[in-house]
Amino acid sequence: MSSPEEEMLLAGKITGAYGIKGWVKLHAFTDPPENFFAFSRHQVVRRGQPEAIQFEDGRTQGKGLIARVVGVDTRTDAELLRGTEVWVPKAELPVLGPQDYYWHQLQGLQVWTEHEGQTLLLGVVDHLLETGANDVLVLRPCDGSIDKRERLIPYLPDDVVLEIDKEAGTMTVVWHPED
């Protein structure tokens, strides 16, 4: 179990039961999905309380993952976990290179663009979408943004995304404010 001050990140979700022996289907938010099993500790929140959970015999199955949960031996017990989010300690994430970012590090950044000699605030990164071709930043309006529109901007480093400054909480993009 994690300590109260340990920061946890959402790593996946249990989407249902698989088979009759307590296995579950998982949708992992890791890239690649198999990295979900690289964490030494997982936890879920049930009835408002964090609870340690252990996976064993996990593997890829179709477009998702399946795994057996320690202590869950029937399909009925596995079904009780359906919809449960699975969290992992942030401290266990691998260290990235200087120009690489985890999605959670981009959330909340103010997104700025230059247009006709003015620096304009487009909004803040709410979340990212995987589209297959490239990831997409979903911006929501914020105090000081040019309007109240939600924007979708492709996450293309060096093409659309020019600079990310985590310390300043900003991202600079090449994007027309009317797009």
From TrEMBL:
PANTHER family named in the record: RIBOSOME MATURATION FACTOR RIMM
Record protein name field:
Ribosome maturation factor RimM
| Family recorded in the similarity comment | Belongs to the RimM family.
Gene3D superfamilies membership: PRC-barrel domain (2.30.30.240), RimM (2.40.30.60)
Where is the Ribosome maturation factor RimM PRC barrel domain positioned along the sequence?
103-176
Q: Per its UniProt entry, which superkingdom is the organism in?
A: Bacteria
Kindly state the subunit structure of this protein.
Binds ribosomal protein uS19.
Keyword annotations: Chaperone, Cytoplasm, Ribosome biogenesis, rRNA processing
Q: Where in the cell is it found?
A: Cytoplasm
Q: What NCBIfam families has UniProt attached to this entry? A: 16S_RimM
Note the SUPFAM superfamilies from the entry.
PRC-barrel domain, Translation proteins
Which residues does the UniProt record annotate as the domain RimM N-terminal? 11-91
Function, as annotated: An accessory protein needed during the final step in the assembly of 30S ribosomal subunit, possibly for assembly of the head region. Essential for efficient processing of 16S rRNA. May be needed both before and after RbfA during the maturation of 16S rRNA. It has affinity for free ribosomal 30S subunits but not for 70S ribosomes.
